[in-house]
Amino acid sequence: MRQRRLGASEGGVGSSGGNMLRFYTDDAPGIKISPTVVLVLSLCFIGFVTALHVFGKLYRSKLVPPGAQ
């Protein structure tokens, strides 16, 4: 019985694994930041958007007189 060789389209280990590991090496292009910094910045962005939403609701409630809607 003959052995079947894995081609590039069949998802072999070497087909895309090498490309994905390249993102995590020192020679990858782009800004080098740790995952902790990404997490903190994401949480700050979520907090900022939430604060804008709350301030917008409060500001809008002060502009419209009660019973006008």
Automatic annotation (TrEMBL):
InterPro entries: Sec61-beta/Sbh, SecG/Sec61-beta/Sbh. Its main location: endoplasmic reticulum. The keyword Zinc does not apply. It holds the Pfam family Sec61_beta. GO terms for biological process: intracellular protein transport. It is a single-pass membrane protein. It is found in: Endoplasmic reticulum membrane. Keywords: Endoplasmic reticulum, Membrane, Protein transport, Translocation, Transmembrane, Transmembrane helix, Transport. The chain crosses the membrane at residues 33-55. One of its GO terms (cellular component) is Sec61 translocon complex. Belongs to the SEC61-beta family. This is Protein transport protein Sec61 subunit beta. It comes from Linum tenue.
